[in-house]
Protein: Anti-sigma factor NepR domain-containing protein
Amino acid sequence: MTRTGKEMLQDPVRQKLATTIRQQVRSHGTRGILHSMPAFKVVKDVPEHLQTLLDRLEAVELQADEGSAS
Structure:
């Protein structure tokens, strides 16, 4: 069964756990470790073939959104 965010936060134990996880993810130490890992490095430029695919995907998503809004 899938729970919504509102349902999960009504349980005090889950609420404390969610707060603890958010704090740990935002911590300076965690960010330092993640930045040192190659998989988590930010790439500022995307290879041309991937950018082309991303552009095509965005165009298709926009068409789908326009079709569902009508």
Summary: The chain has one domain: 5-69. The chain has four helices and no strands.
